[in-house]
Amino acid sequence: MNFNSIKAIYLFELGRTWRTLFQSIASPVLSTSLYFVVFGSAIGGRMEEVGGVSYGAFIVPGLIMLTILTESVSNASFGIYLPRFTGTIYEILSAPISVAETLLGYVGAAATKSLIIGLIILATARLFVDYSVMYPLAMIGFLVLISVTFSLFGFILGIWADGFEKLQIVPMLILMPLTFLGGTFYSISMLPQAFQTVTLFNPVVYLVNGFRWTFYGQADFNISVSLGMTLMFMAICIAIISWIFKTGYRLRS
Amino acid sequence: MASIISVKGLEKTYKGGHRALKSVDLEIERGEIFALLGPNGAGKTTLIGIICGLVRKTAGTVMADGYDIEKDFRKARARIGLVPQELSADMFITVWHSVKFSRGLFGLSDNDAYLEKILRDLSLWDKKDAKIASLSGGMKRRVLIAKALSHEPSILFLDEPTAGVDVELRRDMWQMVRRLREQGVTIILTTHYIEEAEDMADRIGVINKGEIILIEDKHTLMRKLGQTEVTVGLKEPLSSVPADLSAQTGTLSTDGLTLTYVLEGENAEDQGTDLIKRLSASGLDFRTLNMSRSSLEDIFVNLVHTEHAGTGI
Fold it and tell me: Closest to A86 (Cβ–Cβ): which among B55, B88, B109?
């Protein structure tokens, strides 16, 4: 392992966050706060409890998940797409570093940033709604796992994309709907039976559920199913990335 | 001298079927300045790209300082510094951060004193806190060189280093290249300014359509393929070429006022001076006298042109 290389990429990427502090942190925090104001406080006050938890508290894990997913994907995809676009990727490709080291640098930085944003939102949520976390360690663990997994996914997107539009289309057209339909704002059991079955094919459902379990100790699915699905998605992403580096897909002609 | 870079049977066929390199063999000697010349699209950048890890080879082997660029990619790449043709650098960070990042990326621990020395050598030290976006083209080029040198490579590739660089900067840059060579760094450069290769390089390779058509010591090349031209401007027109001036046949312009001799071979310059001596002894009255040696540029154009005509060399 070449720790100096990993450190260089990691700090470089986090430095980008620091330089663009406002977009990087302020905007996701602001938009999530708006959700809390509207759904948590304003509308949530008139809603029934979901599974014994007030509606405002119920949506906290889902909203954090929504932000973590979009932030991880956009950070990681942008992080690797930008050097491809500007041509500075030549330096990464000519450096004596392995796939694993490159990934640890890029994905590590993107996941770190997501994690920080997630924790900030968690703290912000406190201002609007009252919630509790039953298993704090498991909660952090899930947060890390999901940040890493979706940063890996973002990395793939950043290598696949050949224009800025594609970078935005995937989070907008695929991730957003999957997250909204993945039980961010509701429990799966509130849906008619047919929709419940369709929902089972949405991977985000398992993430939101697992994460919600760490807060309230209950969810639509067993926690091991959620964990298994997350790990599987992560394994698929790693396999695709290994293939990318092996074949040089869109990196080395 | 042992080769520092050894390329054997290197092939590259791009996805579209374009065969960019055709069984290229190339040995670069340790400590030399090697100039790779060739027209656009000849395969220069592909060749450099493969050695540096940017392009995947189709077949063949490349060894850098004794290490296979694929099997021992860490050791091979650690020894190589690359200054790319395009001015691609992260525009929003400072020169200092950029150079520091490059060193770290190549796995080395911090050495600020070394980086300071590089920046001072390249006259970049007073710009170290400037954002790269604010620098001129020539300065950006220097930053790329500083980045390439930050990990103390023993082999430096310069792909068109002086494109778009003004005369003064160019001179500075070549001074730096000479200094690096004195420190034992092997330098491989491509350039469009052939007079630069003529001025700088120890050996010259010419690549055309994916094939190395010539590798030669510069002086040998100049001697072997160079020509000396003697042009005499006469005061009175002549009706025929004087027979006794040179063993080579001269040509007379239609107005009979200009006499031209093209002298070839290794002793072309001696033939030229002999010719001038005989000319003054002959009593022919002349107004101007010009003797010129063909430049590398002439040789290069000639070579590539001959190749294009399909006659080979």
Answer: B88
